[in-house]
Amino acid sequence: MRRPRIGVTTSHRSGWRIFPLVAFNVWLAGGRARRWVAGREASVSRVDGIIIGGGDDISPDLYGGKLVASARLDPERDALERRLVIEAMAEGKPVLGICRGSQMLNVALGGSLDGDAYATFRESRKVKTILPRKTVLPEPGTRLATIAGPAEMQVNSLHSQAVDRLGEGLRVAARDTGGMIQAVERVREPFALGVQWHPEHLFYAHRQRALFAALVRAAEAQDRSESQLAAAALS
Question: Can you say how many angstroms the Cα of residue 42 is from the centroid of all Cα atoms in its chain?
Fold first, then answer.
């Protein structure tokens, strides 16, 4: 049986070093990753699932927010990823959002971001490290709690923006100890989960590998469904 194909969006600036790590996690989970960058072809119909990766900040033009002076923007990437999320939802393809990708999942579905989240959530611990130094609390009864377990977990953190108003069909899946949203998820199919941290750096932690495994399982299910429909059409 072939490995599900997972399209992975990356930054022009940092994708060359991040993509191999994401691809490694996808391979461990049973999938096969292909890299997408703005300016090149990226087709939802040619993959079984999608990862919207981390990197640049999202332009506030997409959600009516205010520009923060420290923001690094890539409008071409914004347009690509917004299109991919919308098409994935329409075609029933699963999506995993990582950091920026979690925010894009929310924005593409009509939500907004807090451009200076740590100024709003002053009790949230501000850390910028790939090491697991931040505590997040999965919300009871969520898909995230089922996938990674309901107990608090230690994750890394590199973000300054965070989800504010939720997009259509999404709910909060985790918060940090200061109340800032750290994960969102779709309440119905197709599978869509966004986490504010970078699980690709935490491949040694089984709870973080479980996120990639959940995406690949959802992609396998989607692939089987498409194959069955094709077979039925030919019979």
Answer: 17
Tokens of 70: 């420290």
Between CA 211 and CA 217 the distance in angstroms is 10
pLDDT digits (tens, 9 = 90+) for 181-206: 999 999 999 999 999 999 999 999 99
**Residues counted in the chain:** 235
- Give the per-residue pLDDT at 229: 59
Backbone φ and ψ of 61, nearest 5°: -60, -25
pTM of the model: 0.93
Strands 129-138 and 95-98, bridge-based pairing: unpaired
Q: Which domain holds residue 106?
A: 5-234
Specify the CATH number for the domain of residue 130. 3.40.50.880
| Number of domains the chain is built from | 1
Give catalytic residue positions: 99, 198, 200
**Residues 6 or more apart whose Cβ sits within 8 Å of residue 98:** 22, 51, 52, 53, 54, 194, 195, 197, 198, 199, 200
Strand intervals (E) in 118-161: 129-138, 153-157
Counting Cα atoms < 13 Å in the Cβ hemisphere of 126 gives: 11
pLDDT in tens, 99-123: 999 999 999 999 999 988 999 999 9
DSSP state of 195: E
